[in-house]
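does this look right to u?? zinc ion version
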Amino acid sequence: MSAESGIPTFRGASGLWKQFRAEELATPQAFASRPNLVWEWYNWRRELIGEAKPHAGHEALLLMEKCIPHFTLVTQNVDGLDKQAGIQNVVKLHGDIWQTVCTRCGERRENREVPISALPPHCQCHPDALLRPGVVWFGEALPAAEWDRAVEAVENAELLLVVGTSAVVYPASSLITIGIRNGAHTVEINPQSTPLSHEMDLCLAGSAAELLPAIASALESDA
Ligand SMILES: NC(=O)c1ccc[n+]([C@@H]2O[C@H](COP(=O)([O-])OP(=O)(O)OC[C@H]3O[C@@H](n4cnc5c(N)ncnc54)[C@H](O)[C@@H]3O)[C@@H](O)[C@H]2O)c1
Ligand SMILES: [Zn+2]
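got this back:
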């Protein structure tokens, strides 16, 4: 969803940072063994995201939220461009890059420093307490309350727009199968096909910034 705001996707070629792939850095193991390296990567991402602006696709979702009852945006993106665009009902499955969490006391705090200069950052609760980015890493459980909200939204959805996911990361991808099982009309918006493309009612091969505005204006003129 944020690719056209200049934020690389995880598995695309432009998702590389130095010689590392996101899957090698966004893990608890990477943070345990090389916290500074992981934080340098997050500093780089926070710099990119800090300069990014929502695109026409985000504006289109905002328009949909205004004209569709029970609109819910479930996202794996941690950049907050959705809220920046004004979208209210956002379920953040993977947390928020603008938050830190203490690995010792668990306190979650907003942190907008770019770049964070003293690496790795520490919590005030203890001299050894490292702060980590407030996001969900590979191999970690999704936040239960967010997951429940996402499942409820998908179970009750008449229309499920699946935008810009490779649909390979479980359990997020199982939301799509839940929607299909519960009889939602399913539409995939992605320039490439995914392992779930053949199960969709409709696949639109194109980008979020290009296709979402077209859908939003059609819905708006229908409403
Ligand atoms: N903890 C985290 O920080 C975290 C973890 C997983 C995913 N994410 C975010 O969620 C996104 C989706 O997760 P994923 O695991 O499916 O990522 P992914 O990188 O595997 O897949 C990205 C998908 O987006 C599609 N795409 C690229 N440009 C597009 C565009 N302009 N419009 C529509 N689709 C486009 C690609 O074809 C691909 O299918 C990631 O790109 C990443 O930004 C964040
Ligand atoms: Zn602490």
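The chain has one domain: 3-222. idk if thats expected tbh
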